[in-house]
Amino acid sequence: xxxxxxxEKIGYGFGDMSSSTFWKIFSYYLPFFYSNIFGLxxxxxxxxxxxxxxxxxxxxxxMGIICDRTNTKWGKYRPYLxxxxxxxxxxxxxxxxxxxxDYGAKLIWAYITYIxxxxxxxxxxxxxxxxxxxxxDDSNEKTVFSSFRMFFAYGGSFLALFLWExxxxxxxxxxxxxxxxxxMVVIASACFVMFLxxxxxxKEHLKTISTVSVGSDFKSLLSNKPWWLLxxxxxxxxxxxTVRGATVxxxxxxxxxxxxxxxxxxxxxxxxxxxxxxIGEVSNMVxxxxxxxxxxxxGKKTTFIVVNAALLVLSVLxxxxxxxxxxxxxxxxxxxxxxxxxxxxxxxxxSMYADVSDYAELKFQTASTGLIFSSASMAQKFGxxxxxxxxxxxxxxxxxxxxxxxxxxxxxxxxxxxTVLRYLMSFIPAAVAALAIVVxxxxxxxxxxxxxxxxxxxxxxxxx
Length: 464
Fold this sequence. Notes:
The chain is mainly α. 78% of the residues lie in helices and 3% in strands. The strands form 2 sheets. It has a two-stranded antiparallel ribbon. A two-stranded antiparallel sheet has the order 2-3. Helix 11 runs antiparallel to helix 12 (325-364) and helix 12 (325-364) packs antiparallel against helix 13. The chain is globular and about 70 Å long.
C-alpha cells in the first residue's frame, strides 16, 4: 500500500485552492457582473452562461482522454498543472475585462473570453482531479486527500469571496468595470502561484496504462452503472450550490439591502453578500474536517443521503426567516449550518469518483481515470450552467429590473421578482437535495464492495 507524506496532501490542496477560488467567483458573481456591470440583458447573460458551460462540460471527456494517454517523467496528469497555469490566470483576467464597445461587440467578447476561460479551466482541472486516482491505492486515504483538497479549496474561496467587494472597492469601485478588472488581476496572480506549488509538492505513485481504444473507454464508461448514478448525484450537488450562490448577490441587493449593519457585543459590522458567502466558505471547511470521520463511520453512501436530507430541511426553513435584525442572525446561522453540510459533501463526492474509477479498472480492464474524473468536472459544469442560467432566466421571467437608468430613476423590484429570489434561496435548492437522495439510493458501491475491489486491484497494479 502506498505511503504518502503530509506535504503531498498540502500540495494537492493548493491546486483546488486555486481553481476553486476562480470557480466560486465565476459561479457567485459572474451572473451579477454580466447583468449589472458588463451591461448584458438577463436573457443574453443566461444564454451565454448556459452555452459556454455546456461547451466546457462537453470538452471535459476530451481532456480526460488526452491526459489518460499522456506519459512524461512527471506522470500523466501532474505536468498539466505546470503547462496550463499561465493561461488559466490570463484568461481569468480577460473574462472580467469590459471593453468600451457597442452592445453586439461586447456580447461577442463575452462569448469568446468565457469559452476561452472554461476551456483552459478544463485543461488544468481535469488532470488535477484525476491525480487523486493515482496518488494512493487506499480508498480511505483518497478521502483524506480529497478532504485536504476541499479544505484548501474552501479556504481560498473564503478569502476571495470575503475580500472581493472590499478589493474591488479599493481598486476602482464595486460598481465599476475597472474595480472588477483589477480585482481579478490580484486573484489570478495568486492562483498562478498556487498551481505551481501544487505541481512542485505532489507525485503520482500509481502507474496505470490504458491498453484499450478510446471507443472502448467510452463504451465501458456508458456501461458503468455506478458512474451514471454518481453523475446524477454530483449534478444535483453542484446545482444546489450554484443556485444558492448565484442568487446571493441579487438577494442582498434587493431583499436584505446594501447598507444593513449588524452588531456583535456592541461591535457594528456591515451585513453584505461577501460576508455571507465568506462565512459559508469557512463553515465548508468545518464540514470538510468532519467528512472523514463521518464517512468512515457511516459509509460514503449513507453519509451522502443523510447530508442531503439535512440540506432539504434547512433550505425550507430559510424561506420563513423574516428580514429583521433577529432574522438576519437566523439567516447567518442557517448559512453556517447549510455550509457545514455542503462541506461534508464536496470531498465525499470526489472520493466516490475515485472508487468508481477503481471499479471501472477492475470490471472493464481499462485505466480511464482521467475520463472518469473529467465526468466529475462535467457534472460540476453542467450544474453550474443549468443553475446559473436558471437564476437569470427566472429573474427575467418574473420582471427583475437591471436597467441602470430605471434604477437611478428610483425603480423598485416588483414583488414577483422578490418572491422568486426567496424561492431561489429555499424551496428550489430543497427540491434539488430531494432529487439527490433518490438518485444515490440506488448507488451500489458500498464500503464492503469497495474493499473487495481494492484487494483485487492490488494484485495487478504497478505501485511506486
